Each structure stands twice: as structure tokens, then as C-alpha cells.
Amino acid sequence: MVEYLKEFNFVSVVVRLLLAMASGAAIGYGRAKKSRNAGLRTYMLVSTGAALTILVSLYENQMLYGQWAWAADLAEFKFDGTRYAAQVINGIGFLAAGTIIGSSHQQVSGLTSAIGLFTAAALGIAAGSGFYECVIPALFIIILAMDVMSPLEVSFKRRLRNITIYVEFQDIEDISRISDTITGQGAKIFDIDIECSERTVSSFPSAVFSMKMSRERSSHSEMLSSVAELPCVYAIQELIS
């Protein structure tokens, strides 16, 4: 059956398109639940479109060396089906770049969505090529990395000594007080980036503190609590990219 599906026929074309669509849907479902930039339909269409491109390439290759062989020889036409896959990869780069957004507080969002679209296109290429032995294990690994590993990654980052926090405070002069509180916890401040946020009526300062905590006092929650207890602090948030 596998050998039959590797041949270029109507049944194999339908199976490859359905496999590509299912692979894209499997990746996009997890992204849609998290309300990401690219959702279920986007991943399905990207993967199916990539598979369709490869199938068109295979069709043209079959026709040029079959029914259209005389015309190809007469015109001395040379065909390279691998260019289709290369153009898919180039084209998906523009789509993936559109999902990357520079948000506030030195944060960048959409990187996982971008690489997810790239891998969905690669899965579509593999499915369209009939490389079934690659699609299934690759799909499993991608879902494992994008969905299962996500909470583990956040948990790991919360255990690191390096930490970045966003703090809203009353006056610009309060930075020294906040810095003293942080260093009083044994942490070393690497950088302070002052920002300006706006509420409904008045504007007030804010800053992003990048630091490395000591081995003895490396609890993120303890650091956040010590800064939040200052009367001049309006809000505080740990930034996890």
C-alpha cells in the first residue's frame, strides 16, 4: 500500500493533500487554543498549499517526460522540479515575518508562530513528495516542541538566576530606591531601560530592570514581592520571552 501511494496517481494525490492538511491542522490546533497570530486555518492552508505546489511540480515533471516529451525536446526545455520547493520556502518567509511583532517592554512576540509556519510548509512539501516516513515522526516532534515543551520552558526560565522585570512607579527619582531594593536582595543589575506609559489621565514613568540574582536568593517570586511592597511601585511584572 505504501509503495502504491508513493506512485503518482489520483489516490496518492488525494492522500498527500489530506495528510498535509491534517498535519497543518494538528499544529494549528494548539496555536489556535492559545489565540496566537496564526491559527488553525492558517496552518492548514500553508501546509496544503505547499503540498499542492510539490504535486504540481511532480505533474509537470511527469508530463514533460511523458505526453509532452516531444514538445520539450523540440524546445530544448529543461525542467527542475526542486525549484518549486525552494520558492515555497522563500515565500513562506514573507508570511512568517508578518507574524513577528515587536511588543512593549523589549519583548518580541510571534517567533514561535513564524517558525511554526515554516515547519508546516516543510511538512506540506514532505507530504506532497510522498515522503510518508518523514511526515508522521516530524509531526510528532513538532507538536512536542510547540505544545508539550511550552510549559516546561516557562518553568525552566522561572528557575534561572537571570530575570527581567517591568516596574511602574510614581516618580523618576524612585528608580534609585527600587535599585537599592533589588541589590539588597543580592542581585546584580545589568541594565535599566526607562519607559513612559500612559494611564487614562496622567503619565507616569516605568522601567525594565535586567538583573542576575544571587545563588543564595534566587527566588523570582521573592524578588517580585520585595519590589512590589515598595509604596512607590504601582505595578510589577516578570517578562518571560
Structure description:
- This protein is an alpha+beta fold.
- The chain folds into 2 domains: about 160 residues, no CATH class; about 80 residues, Alpha-Beta Plaits, CATH 3.30.70.60.
- The protein is about 60% helix and about 15% strand.
- The protein contains 9 helices and 6 strands.
- The strands form 2 sheets. Strands 4-5-3-6 form a 4-stranded antiparallel beta sheet, covered by helices on one side. Strands 1-2 form a two-stranded antiparallel ribbon.
- A hairpin with a 5-residue loop joins strand 1 and strand 2.
- The radius of gyration is 26 Å and the shape is elongated.
- The model has no long low-confidence stretch (mean pLDDT about 80).
How many structural domains?
2
Q: Give the CA-CA distance, first to last residue.
A: 46 Å
Low-confidence stretches: none
Strand content: 15-25%
Q: Helix and strand succession?
A: HHHHHEEHHEHEEHE
User: Overall 3D geometry?
Assistant: elongated
Helix content: 55-70%
Tally of separate helices: 9
How does the major sheet shape up? 4 strands, antiparallel
- Whole-number radius of gyration? 26 Å
Task: Provide a compact summary of the structure.
The protein contains 9 helices and 6 strands; from the N terminus they run αααααββααβαββαβ. The protein has helices spanning 2-6, 10-33, 40-64, 69-74, 82-97, 111-128, 132-157, 174-184, 220-228, and strands at 101-102, 108-109, 162-169, 188-198, 203-212, 233-238. α2 runs antiparallel to α3 (40-64) and α2 (10-33) runs antiparallel to α6.
